[in-house]
Amino acid sequence: MSLLEVSELSVVFGNGVRAVDRLSFDLDRGSTLCVVGESGSGKSVTSLAILGLLPGAEVSGRITFDGVNLVAARPAELRALRGERIAIVFQDALSALNPYYQVGFQIAEAYRAHRRVPMAQARRVAVRMLERVGIPDPERRAREYPHQFSGGMRQRVMIAMALCLEPELLIADEPTTALDVTVQAQILGLLDELRRETGTSVLFVTHDMGVVAGLADEVLVMRGGRAVERGPVDRVFAEPAEPYTRALLACVPRIDRPVPDRLATVPPMEATR
Amino acid sequence: MTVLLEARDLVMEFPVRHALTRRVVGRVAAVNGVSLRIRSGETLGLVGESGCGKSTTGRLLTRLLTPTSGSVHFAGRDLATLSERALRPVRRELQIIFQDPFSSLNPRKTVRQILSAPYRYQRVAEREPVERQLARVGLLPEHADRYPHEFSGGQAQRIGIARALALRPRLVVCDEPVSALDVSVQAQILNLLKDLQEELALSYLFVAHDLGAVRQLCDRIAVMYLGTVVETADRDTLFAGPAHPYTKALLAAVPIPDPARERARPRVPLTGDLPSPLDPPTGCPFNTRCPKAADRCRVERPVLRAHATGHDVACHYPEETTR
What we know:
The structure holds 2 protein chains of 2 kinds.
Chain A: E1 4-12, E2 18-27, E3 32-36, H1 43-50, E4 58-65, E5 68-69, H2 75-81, E6 86-89, H3 93-96, H4 103-112, H5 119-132, H6 138-141, H7 151-163, E7 169-173, H8 181-198, E8 201-206, H9 209-215, E9 218-223, E10 226-232, H10 233-238, H11 243-250, H12 269-272
Chain B: E1 3-17, E2 24-39, E3 43-47, H1 54-61, E4 69-74, E5 77-78, H2 84-91, E6 94-97, H3 111-122, H4 130-136, H5 153-165, E7 171-175, H6 183-200, E8 203-208, H7 211-217, E9 220-225, E10 228-234, H8 235-240, H9 245-253, H10 259-264, H11 295-299, E11 305-308, E12 311-313
Parallel strand pairs in B: 3-8, 3-9, 6-7, 7-8
Antiparallel strand pairs in B: 1-2, 1-4, 4-5, 9-10, 10-12, 11-12
Helix pairs in contact in B: 3-5, 5-6
């Protein structure tokens, strides 16, 4: 059985915008699903819906995580799952971290939300996690504040926080979009390594087909709140079935192919639906 | 090809102020000795990661910033020392397109007002009606009386491009013109910039961090790191045989939409972070992250010098170029 099964998920905001429209997909244990799409495709809203982080929106359909329907779950049930079994890493690590607290404390706090251990012990977990995500001198860095970290190091802190409770599902919502390419390569390498070690399933949201190629087992292409195409990564890249997937692959200038005179463009939405 | 713009030894230092007292406690060199040439009709790409000084360089070339030292020769004058008054006519020939299409358009003005502003400020007759300006960038006549918020990001960027072209400049500095846009919109804007270059015989300085976009548009490329140019070469040479270890690492880090290739890729081409420009390393600025760094690199700063014809590198131990 799949770890996560999403069926007929729709999200409608108060202003009537249907951000996600009857979306279905599933994610197997230990595998990585990349959700790819442009802005407004509903990819981030989908990841927030899984965690029940869309107050005020009307969420319908089913999101089954290990047999539990999250759409119908009570707030206390969701709180027990968040962090402990499903964790998330956001795009903007600086606004996700609290500027007033030391990063070690923030990781320890997340840990103590689910484990009844003394602060000192949770702090040791935090230091060990910082070390594991490749932060040099973790003992000292744990006592520093978010503004003292570079963008890449802050994202490492977020990953340390997300993985400190060994969740079964890690949702990563454009975690490298704000980073430079050399730092992005480091973070993607780290995520891949940790995923192999822990067996965590990953739902990775991105707009970058290059990143998808490096991480995904399965790909879900979204547009306008709907699933356009879904399949194993090699098949989707080699033989995209849908015109939109083909266009999305063709419009990106790539450094491994001869330079085209003009770039392919994506037909407007109506034409591909 | 004739040289349209030549910058020599540009340095831009910003004061560093104490958080509370606002007293100047130091100086940071965002640009530290940049020299480059833009030839007539070509596109020069300026690439590098955040904080490398590429945008600051773009602003120095357009004199939106006044350099601490160095010169910018354009149209027979040194822009670095011209007075504001003397600069004004030069700006007709030297325009800029910004990264964020919305914050660079006045939200209280209609597109018509935005596109006629260059003529008003320059006190010259309108060269052509707004409708014609809009058509050139792929927009419709009825867009003229709308406000910026009524447009998508791609459309707003087209308005920014139309405004930059209103005075028929010879050189346009494009400062990350597509990085705020969706990939499908990026392709449209890159195609548009290329078409306009042919139609209007423009030269571009294309400042960007996206190497795919840079390769698509540029004839020559300068790679920056920590305020200096570390390598310049024509496009095909740079992508086929980068000579500076930083350029090599930068190219290796670009994800390629090909699953088999990505799986085979050696991960983590570069370790560590960009050093703080407040406290730059001695010797070569790249020595703290360079896999080839030797004792000499920690002491002696390499200068940009010819590696092959038309290919300059600032490195003591450049890669052997295999071509």
